[in-house]
Amino acid sequence: MSKSLKNTLYQRFSMILVCSVVVISGLVIRTERLLLTNDLQDKGDSIARILSSVTLDAVLRHDYATIERYVRDITREKFVTGIEVVRKDGEILAGHNSTQSRNTILTTYPIRMGIQEFGVVKIFFSTSRIDAITWQIVFAAIGVILILHFLGLLLTNMVLNKTVLIPLARLQQAIKTVSTGDFNTLVDPGGPREFETIGTSFNTMAQQLRQSFTEIKKSRQALDLERNKLAAIVAAMADGMFVTDNNALITSFNQSASKITGYLQEEAIGRSCEDLFRTSLCRDACALRHQGETRENVETSMITKDGRKLDVSVSSAILRDKDGERIGGVQTFRDISDEKKRHDLYCRTEKLAAVGQLAAGVAHELNNPLGNIIGYAKMISPDEAPEKVPGRVDVIIEQARKCADIVRGLLDYSRTSASEQNHVDLAGIVRGVAEVLTLQMKKKGVELSLDLQELPRLSADERKVEQVIMNLALNAIQAVEQGGSISIAVRQHGDMARLEVGDNGPGIPEELRCRIFDPFFTTKPVGEGTGLGLAISAGIIDELGGLIELGTPENGALFIVSLPLGSRLQGNDNG
Questions:
Q1: Alpha-helical runs (H) found in 380-437
Q2: Is the pLDDT of residue 507 over 70?
Q3: Domains of the chain
Q4: Calpha distance 487→492 (Å, rounded)
Q5: Nearest to 536 by CA among 357, 363, 420, 408
Q6: Cα angle at 510 between 508 and 514, to 5 degrees?
Q7: 192-202 pLDDT, tens per residue?
């Protein structure tokens, strides 16, 4: 557990104070002992010098009693513990209490007669007075330490409370208030300038927190509103919806999904898509199985809880987090079983209508030539002039040929003849058709532009490909006005050969675009077409495994034919 600021400061202050007083006291004691010792030695040197002179004079007069008297007088001093006057040969001429100890300082001075040394004076001084003064200093230092320590702690406590602890307590109380969510609290901690700066920063922080909290609250309310809206939308959706994670495990399942499949949310969540629906729905429509590609209205099937098989239309997209990382997928589906039944019924109805239209067209187309045949046949009688008979027979033959052409067109539309597979040069066929139609285009002043790219050869019936190109080119020539223009382009589009035939004519009205490939439907004037050209072309292209589409240019009409490159389709001989 960490210490409080006050305890830490007191401890550091006490340590610094004690160390400071100890160091200062040690320096004072050392200096005091050095000064006293030097003073004592100076006194000893002075006494030894005097005693050396007295001893030399007494020796010369053989008055040794004088030496003894001087020694006794000197030893009366408290700081002198002993004196020895020693001759050079080691004989002690005079002495008193010369015992040495640890608390003794020895001072010596030679006894000389000229340059000849006669002996030496030794004086022993006691350091007890120095030791006593030293202990006085020590005790005084201890007292000073205690007094300073008390006064320092008292002063430190006052200063610390006023400059640190009280401002900190105010800040701490303000922080507790802010932590409860009350961001209107402002603090004036007082104290030194640093605490005023901290208080200003705290008030600024509180204001920013209040503003941020208000914005967060508004954002949360808006988010809750949007979440509730989304939940209401999902709950009200007629389509089923479920969400999966990256492992294709279902994490969300709406009410419509439960109604369609029969599974409750508790039964569906946590199970895999394939395990729940027991079909290839996930493989067919899940974006997770198609490199994240969004899937729209993919038709597939699922098995309900009670074992019914439903046809469903599924759309799927990837779910990503804020960093763009994939976290799962969302799938919506709807039951199209009834729609498919209605569509099948509609298709059968359309087929019957087409059969009726076809029969009506055949009847209309055959009625005129058959009427002519009957009329001219009635005009041939035994009473008729012989020269008129051949002309009327020619008319009957011509009208019969028209009937045969109509029947042949119907046969070409309804069934295919035997196909001869060859390696076909699509660009070469276009050039050939353009050369055949040159005369018709010149008569009408039509300008032809070709954009032909050399492609790998197709495997197809060259005669049928030529028939398709011829039908489209003739329709374009008939559609444009005098001096119009036609464009034919051949290029590669992926693994398909693409043929585009366009013109700058009036174009095809939007309401008629869905009928242009119906048999006997034509916008041409009477006598210029039977309405079978585009229908026959569509049948040939379907046989070759291709596709014919009506483009949407800015003006005129555009037919786009796509044929597979390298096709190996074999024609069926149906008679």
A1: 389-414, 426-436
A2: yes
A3: 5-132 (3.30.450.20), 237-335 (3.30.450.20), 342-411 (1.10.287), 417-564 (3.30.565.10)
A4: 17
A5: 408
A6: 90
A7: 677 777 777 87
